[in-house]
Specification:
Shape: elongated
Largest sheet: none
Keywords: Membrane, Transmembrane, Transmembrane helix
Distance between the termini: 132 Å
Radius of gyration: 45 Å
Protein name: Putative membrane protein
InterPro entries: DUF2339_TM, UCP035905_mem
Low-confidence stretches: 1-17, 41-107, 109-118, 175-183, 335-353
Structural class: mainly alpha
Number of helices: 36
Oligomer: single chain
Number of strands: 0
């Protein structure tokens, strides 16, 4: 009874589908007639099919907008007469498919079409598959049929569904096939049949044991491959189903420890079949799915097998990359794809847009899914080889070699196809991270409890890593040679990878296994790398100086970086510090022959690296080797040579149109010159020892005088050759020096507060160096900056000079009365207190005279402020502390001075009114 019901259902379904198929044929003929009519070739009604097929169909692949409208009307028309479609030819089906493929995008699908034409098909296919399952389940629960009979019926049911799908496909309408390509009835029936066949075969092996693993494996693989073949007729969804069935077959029937060569050979064969079918049908989703599945199996095998052979895993990934490069997507036409997707007009607008859009465009090039799945999958598997080796004591040199081969293949993929930008990026990231794991295993082994290798084998890992870095230079060169002029963003990307990847790997290798005294292997590697990169830069410049300017500059900068690495590998201590600016200067002078913007900027990089080395080792050499001879020691070479070369470089680029370059070199030259003098002073003032101790007032005074002198020098340079660095750098030094006198000269290092000896000589002592000389220097700088710098800055300098002069006079008074040591805890005597008033008033009078003579309002204001301080001091301090004659003399003197000042101002004001 069950079998009869099943047969009836299948027969009725076929009859219903045949009826729909006939209606679809009428629509096909009607649409073809309309297309030919619009093309100027109207087919005569009533002509036989053979006669119609013999006539050529011209311009059928160029439909107009009216053709699309008529096409839509024809598809929407529910009924047609048989005589209206007699002129349709059977061989016109393919031409109609081409017309539909090139037609404009159809209008938004209606709810009725979605429910009736799509959901009904999908749900119907699921219902058929579930119906077969429920039928088998019912027979099992009722005990009607034996297991063998049930399995045979299920297989027959699957074959019937596959046959029904093929019959309907042959009579289906191509127009509807294009419109509802993801909801085609033949494909759904075939998929349901495949599920039934696959399930019955697996049940025969896994549940009932009717067939052995070999037979089950063969049958399941055959069903899967047959499904892939049918997918060429029924679409991409069926291909995905066949692929999934193929990939899970080994998990269903394979023994616990499969032969890895047979296992991965089967997977690669299945993957190749999928890729070949995808190329024929130009599918994107199924091959991406295939790449992901093929990458998952190696991971499961590596970390879930007792004995692992990494060779078949590596060959599997190489096969996937080779198939991706040569089969599908292979030489995929990116430009054609863009035109199909967004139109040629939009492509032209995109090419004229900003550089950011260029980068975003080539990074998003299709087929993006296939590129990412193949690259990510291969990179993850390659990294898993190293991880397995470190965790389970697999020979690391063997694993690192296999890793390098896979990553090099990914890089070759990125260099051979213009749509594979992510392959290039991911290969570089995988190379850097993987070689970091392999090369740093001695350091991370203890912390992570991973297996370490002996030093002799580590040398092999070093060779593998350096060789992998060289591969990136080679494949990058081929990319630049082939696509450099047409793919500018990609060419710039490959230039960066050609520089960054080998250098990053070499640095990791050198830090881990290199000889920090002198390492010839890494040093020569850096020299050869630099020479090759510079040769490639020159080659690109000669081929296309305009189009390849960015890659050329990147390669030139990479050549400098390679030499910097070689310099550190072959020398140590003071030699790299001294030779880094020499190397940068050589590249800067090379700019006379080649006007590449990167060449002078290498000097900036060299000076910054030099400052970094100085910060790391301020003594340039080992502190015990420095010596105590003032000036003439390694500090002079380590600081002085870079400073001199920086000044030379700033002079060389003084006419450069690059303002940022000029400013950078001028700033570095100024800083290094000041740093050189300061460090030599520090060394000489501390007995030939450089340490972090707080400087004395004498040492700090030298620094302050240096800052003032440098500020004046930068001002003079700015006046001779206008420069923002000189202008604002000089003003910044003036401000910093004033901050130092406020915090150190007057407070932190003041001998009145610290009790430091001021020296035994009355005038030529610490107070002269710490206060009077800076006061004179500030006064001279203020006079020089007057009219050349903003008034607030000039006023600040003048006030600073006045403050320092006031401090010198006041502290000199105290030293006169107290002697060599003048700390505040020694107290005050009456003569000293009175002397302060006299000196302050004299200074006030002197400032007033200078202010009137120079017509400097700032000096007159300073005079008034100082006189006011003297008045306050007389009334508050002298009155309370002085006695007898000194108290009276203090007030008499103050009164006389104030009256004199008043007369002076009256005379000045009267003279001005008379002049007016």
């Amino acid at each position: 009874m069950t079998e009869l019901l099943l047969i009836v259902i299948v027969v009725v379904g076929i009859l219903i589908l045949r009826n729909y198929n006939q209606r679809l044929q009428r629509l096909e003929s009607r649409v073809l007639e309309l297309q030919n009519a619009l093309a100027g070739q109207v087919l005569a009604v009533g002509v036989s099919e053979s006669a119609t097929a013999a006539e050529p169909v011209q311009d059928a692949t160029q439909p107009s907008e009216n053709a699309t409208e008529l096409l839509t009307e024809a598809v929407a028309e529910p009924t047609m007469e048989a005589e209206d479609i007699a002129a349709a030819a059977r061989d016109g089906v393919e031409q109609t498919e081409d017309v539909i493929a090139l037609a404009p995008v159809r209008e938004e699908e209606s709810l009725e079409s979605t429910i009736g034409a799509r959901w009904a098909v999908w749900v119907g296919g699921i219902a058929l598959a579930l119906g077969g399952i429920f039928l088998v389940k019912y027979s099992i629960e009722s005990g009607l049929l034996s297991p063998a009979v049930r399995l045979v019926l299920a297989a027959i049911f699957g074959l019937v569904l596959v046959a029904a799908g093929e019959i309907i496909r042959r009579r289906s309408e191509p127009v509807l096939a294009n419109t509802f390509q993801n909801a085609m009835i033949p494909g759904v029936l075939t998929a349901a049949g495949v599920v039934a066949l696959f399930g019955s075969t697996y049940a025969a092996h896994g549940i009932y044991g009717f067939i052995g693993p070999a037979v089950a494996f063969f049958l399941l693989g055959l069903i899967s491959l047959a499904t892939l073949g049918l997918s060429l007729l029924h679409g991409q969804a069926l291909a995905g189903l066949g692929l999934l069935a193929s990939m899970i077959t080994p998990a269903l029937v394979a023994p616990t420890a499969p032969n890895p060569w047979t296992f991965f050979g089967y997977l690669v064969f299945t993957w190749l079949a999928t890729i070949a079918a995808s190329r024929l049908r130009r599918w994107h989703i199924v091959p991406s799915f295939a790449n992901a599945l093929l990458s998952i199996w190696p991971l499961l095998y590596i970390f879930n097998s007792d004995v692992v052979d990494l060779a078949p895993v590596t060959l599997t990934m190489l096969a996937m990359m080779a198939g991706t490069i040569f089969i599908w997507p292979g030489p995929y036409e990116v430009a054609a794809t863009i035109e199909e997707d967004i139109g040629s007009a939009e492509t032209e607008e995109l090419s004229a847009s900003s550089p950011t859009s260029h980068w975003a465009t080539f990074l998003a090039r299709g087929p993006l899914g296939m590129t990412l799945t193949a690259s990510i999958g291969s990179a993850v598997v390659a990294l898993s080889l190293l991880a397995y080796s470190l965790l389970y004591a697999y020979p690391l040199p063997d694993a690192s070699l296999l890793f390098a081969v896979i990553v090099a293949t990914i890089a070759a993929f990125g260099a051979s196809r213009v749509y594979a930008a992510w392959a290039a990026i991911l290969s570089a990231l995988a190379a850097g991270f993987g070689m970091f794991l392999a090369l740093m295993q001695p350091e991370i082994g203890v912390e992570l409890n991973v297996v370490q290798i002996v030093p002799a084998l580590s040398r092999l890992v070093v060779y593998d890593s350096l060789g992998l870095g060289a591969v990136f230079v080679i494949v990058g060169f081929f990319f630049l040679k082939r696509f450099g002029e047409s793919e500018k963003p990609f060419a710039a990307l490959w230039s960066v990878l050609m520089v960054a990847t080998p250098l990053a790997i070499a640095v990791i290798s050198y830090v881990t296994f290199g000889d920090w005294t002198r390492d010839w292997l890494h040093g020569l590697y850096g020299i050869v790398l630099a020479a090759v990169l510079m040769a490639l830069a020159e080659l690109q410049h000669r081929r296309s100086p305009e189009d390849m300017i960015l890659p050329t500059n990147i390669l030139a900068a990479g050549s400098f970086a390679g030499l910097v690495f070689a310099l550190h590998a072959l020398a140590h201590d003071a030699v790299p510090t001294v030779l880094l600016p020499v190397l940068g200067m050589a590249f800067l002078l090379a700019g006379r022959a080649r006007s590449w913007p990167a060449l002078p900027w290498t000097m900036v990089a060299a000076l910054i690296l030099t400052l970094g080395r100085i910060a790391w080792q301020p003594t340039i050499v080992d502190p015990g080797e420095l010596g105590t001879t003032p000036v003439f020691n390694m500090l002079l070479a380590g600081y002085g040579i870079p400073a001199a070369l920086a000044v030379w470089a700033a002079f060389e680029v003084r006419h450069s149109p690059d303002l940022r370059l000029r400013n950078a070199l001028q700033a570095l030259a100024s800083f290094l010159a000041l740093l050189t003098i300061a460090i030599l002073v520090r060394h000489a003032m501390n007995g030939g020892v450089l340490n972090a101790n707080v400087p004395t007032l004498a040492e700090q005074s030298i620094y302050t005088l240096l800052a003032i002198g440098a500020s004046a020098t930068l001002m003079a340079l700015d006046l001779s050759a206008s420069s923002l660095v000189f202008r604002y750098g000089g003003m910044a030094l003036g401000v910093l020096s004033i901050i130092s006198i406020l915090t150190l000269h007057l407070l932190g290092l003041n001998p009145f507060l610290t009790g430091e000896s001021t020296g035994r000589i009355p005038f030529f002592n610490l107070l002269l160096l710490g206060y009077l000389l800076p006061a004179i220097a500030y006064g001279g700088l203020a006079a020089y900056a007057r009219g050349k710098r903003p008034l607030p800055y000039v006023t600040m300098l003048a006030v600073a000079g006045a403050v320092m002069a006031f401090a010198w006079a006041t502290l000199s008074v105290r030293r006169f009365w107290q002697g060599e040591y003048i700390p505040f805890w020694n107290g005050f005597i009456q003569g000293e207190v009175y002397s302060y008033s006299v000196v302050w008033l004299l200074i006030g009078i002197a400032l007033l005279w200078l202010g009137a003579r120079l017509d400097a309002r700032s000096l007159r204001i300073a005079s008034a402020a100082l006189v006011f301080v003297a008045v306050v001091k007389v009334f508050l301090i002298d009155m309370a502390n002085l006695e007898g004659f000194l108290r009276a003399l203090s007030f008499i003197g103050l009164g006389a001075v104030l009256i004199g000042i008043g007369l002076f101002y009256q005379k000045v004001l009267t003279g001005r009114k008379a002049t007016e």
